[in-house]
Specification:
With 194 residues, this protein is mainly beta. The protein has three helices and nine strands; from the N terminus they run ββαβαββββββα.
Length: 194
Amino acid sequence: MAEKLRVLVASPLEPEHVEAIRAADFPEEVLSEVTVGDPVTIMARGQGLRLTEHPALSVKNCAPELIERMPGATRADGRLEVHVAARVPAEAVGAGAGMASEFANTDLMGAYAGLSPDLSLGLEGLRIGDFVAIEDADHRFGRGYRPGYVTIGVISTGHCMLHGHSPGPSSLISGPADAFHIVHSSDANLGVIR
């Protein structure tokens, strides 16, 4: 169906988990034919995507077109160059740690505006769409702390007043830190590369 769809889908692993809700949109004339409980098929692109030149890296939540548009490329030394707006230290990871990396996001602590210097992790300027490098994070099989690994994510949620829920990245690419060449760029944002 080429129509847009308005649907809320809870997490398949935690149906009651409000944070893992997905939304889609249908035109009004289609909505009049849809009711609660109707089965919906979601067509996904990018599931199982592999970077053949980078077998140590796992791709999550990412359409092939996004990979093609992201700044960077395979360097002469074989590492994947990725541009990010910020490096996120492992201690910033809040809600979402330990969950599956295929749904929802990881919320960051220390990214609230107006924090005192002892609480700030320098992440207050993150914007929705910013690419980030989460240090010591292995998101290949869930979200875990692992020294020497990096996960590239994109900020997909904004600020929240609840502690531990703040700007949060969705996982895109994860693997050993030495498989990446990270470049800091304030232009590393979805809005810039479209």
